[in-house]
Design brief:
Blueprint: H1 9-136, H2 139-156, H3 162-176, H4 183-196, H5 222-236, H6 253-276, H7 279-296, H8 302-316, H9 327-344
């Protein structure tokens, strides 16, 4: 056997080592390959599962996206609808607010106008009462007007009218205690006298009472009775009358007409003087009417006697009585209206 070369010794040693470690390396490589294959297979399975999951999620996400788009579209439509309704509600709200402001302004205006109407009505009523007192001296009518004005203020139930009501109450008390003059009644009696002038009999129209015809003594014959009747008829054609007055009232028909018209004018003048409360002119006309009535008219007749009594009563009645005024009430209501009128201007 040939001895070994020292140079070959390492090569042999290397081969022996390689032969000894090769199976182990192959086994380790196989294990590594198996492990890598298992890891790759596991990774592949996970990737497949992950891919399937991602695909499923993508499909679900797509479905959800479509649903979301549908829902978003519905929501958008709902939002547009809601915005339209909100806009309509806002318009109605603005309209309602404007109407409310208009109603408030109208209510305030009506409230002011109502007070102004009340004051205007009360002022008109007081003016009528003042006219009744000044022109006709009609205290009852003026008193009724003042009471109506106070009742109107009481119905309004306004505290700012209390001062005015107190002034009106004082004027009402003054009128109730004032002396009364029946101007309306006196005017009515003058009107009745004026209307009755045409029916008053004159002295010139008066006829004495015819005596009863005296029958002839005995039982006259027929011709005597006829002659007596004719004689009585002839005597009735002539009338003899004795007038006690120095100036006999023998008036022509046209003078009688003027006399009656002048008497009517006197009575009308007396009526006007009564309404003017001119006592001197009233009494002068009434006295003149009394004089004419006693001079030219027949006092024995009932109508003339009644007219004379009426004229005497009118001449004795009081005409010019000092009556209270309601100037305080008029001033109070006008002073209450003045600030309101300035505020409106």
């Amino acid at each position: 056997m040939r001895p070994m070369d020292p140079a070959e010794t390492p090569i042999l040693l290397g081969r022996s080592r390689l032969e000894r470690w090769f199976p182990a390396a192959v086994f380790a490589l196989a294990i590594a390959v198996v492990l890598l294959a298992g890891a790759w297979w596991s990774t592949r399975a996970e990737l497949t599962e992950l891919r399937d999951g991602v695909a499923k999620q993508l499909r679900e996400a797509g479905t959800d996206a479509r649903d979301s788009r549908t829902i978003a579209k519905e929501v958008q439509e709902a939002v547009r609808d809601a915005q339209g309704r909100i806009g309509a509600l806002e318009a109605k709200l603005l309209e309602s607010q404007s109407q409310q402001l208009g109603l408030q302004a109208l209510y305030q205006e009506l409230s002011r106008s109502r007070d102004e109407w009340v004051l205007a009505e009360v002022e008109q009523t007081l003016a009528i009462a003042a006219q009744q007192l000044q022109l006709a001296g009609n205290v009852p009518a003026a008193l009724v007007a003042l009471e109506n004005a106070d009742a109107r203020l009481a119905r309004s139930d306004r505290p700012q009218f209390l001062g005015l009501r107190r002034v009106i109450a004082r004027d009402i008390d003054r009128l109730r205690n004032a002396p009364s003059v029946d101007i309306a009644g006196m005017t009515l009696r003058l009107d009745q006298l004026t209307a009755a002038v045409d029916q008053l009999p004159l002295l010139a129209d008066g006829r004495p009472k015819a005596p009863d015809p005296a029958l002839p003594a005995g039982d006259p014959a027929g011709w005597q009775r006829s002659w007596w009747a004719v004689w009585e008829e002839l005597k009735s054609l002539v009338r003899v009358q004795r007038l006690d007055a120095a100036d006999p009232a023998l008036l022509a028909p046209e003078s009688r007409l003027f006399l009656r018209e002048n008497l009517k004018l006197r009575l009308l003048h007396a009526r006007l003087a009564l309404l003017r409360r001119d006592e001197s002119a009233f009494r002068g006309d009434v006295k003149a009417a009394q004089t004419w009535l006693g001079r030219w008219f027949d006092p024995r007749q009932k109508q003339v006697a009644t007219a004379a009594q009426t004229l005497a009563a009118l001449n004795a009645a009081a005409v010019n009585v000092e009556l209270p005024t309601i100037a305080a009430s008029l001033s109070a209501v006008r002073n209450l209206k003045l600030p309101r009128e300035k505020a409106l201007k």
